[in-house]
Every structure is written in C-alpha cells, then in structure tokens.
Amino acid sequence: MGAAASGMQTQMQAEHDPNANFPWWVRFVAKGLGIVGGFVSIFFGIIGLISLDPKCIFAMLLQLVAGCLSIALEAPFCCMFVDFIERVAQFSESRKYWHKAVLFGVMGIIPILICIELNSVLGSGMIFCCGVVYGFMALGKKADRQSMMAASDPAWSPQVNQPSAS
Asked: Its family (predicted)?
C-alpha cells in the first residue's frame, strides 16, 4: 500500500510541476477528453451493436475495447476492481506524449474507417481528439517571435519585402 501511495504522490507532483512545458489545464483537457471519450465511446458502441452490418458490429466491438482501454489508461481509479490496473496506470503515466498521441489516434480512427456511422464518429471521434491533443503536446510550445524570425529564411524577412518609400 505504501508503494501505491508514493506512486500517487509522485504522479501528483508531476501533474502540478511548475517547470512543465504546458499549463496544468492542457494536461487536464487531454485527460478529460480521454476519460469522457472513453465513456461516450462505450455508450455509442453499445448502441451501435444493434446493427445488421457485420463490419459495423466489428467496428463497434473495437470501439468498446478502445473506450475501456481509454478509461483504463486515463482514469485508472474507475477500474480499481481490476487487479492489474495499477501497473497499467504506471505504464501509461511513464509514456511520452507522442506515444499516447499515436495510441489514442489509432484507437480512435480504426472504428471510424471500418464503419462510417454517427455512432462510430461520435464515440471514437472523442478518443481521436484526445490523441490530437496529445500530439500537439508532443510537438511542444511554439517558439517566440524573435527565435522564429532568426531561424526563418531572409527572403521572407519583413525588411526585405517592404517596398521603398521613395
């Protein structure tokens, strides 16, 4: 129990680190999209199982799995009755942002590509949006204006392209 408490304390310190690259709310938006997206994905996956097309039934089953996995990765407290969920949560928290971006992006886009219906777009779309937010976080902050101007091509400089006033 002590190891779990110290792991949670380390996670809390990492989430509220003032030296982090992103504000706290960006990380919470990504987590929130993953959690809400997981529940929405499960809801629309269950509704989508009432279909006659086998491809759509398969897509909805994948969407259900993606929703459950999304909740397990982003909100492990919702699945504490599963004995291995703590290890899954520690594994998830140790991943880089681009790992999460690829995982959530792939989990979100596959059911949409298999069966383009409102159920799959609404359900898996939120998981895909979570992957997009993690992708933006993996790209990092935009540089300031001076750094961008210094790194740009001199042909695009405002001083070069200005017409003379004479």
From this structure: Belongs to the calcium channel flower family.
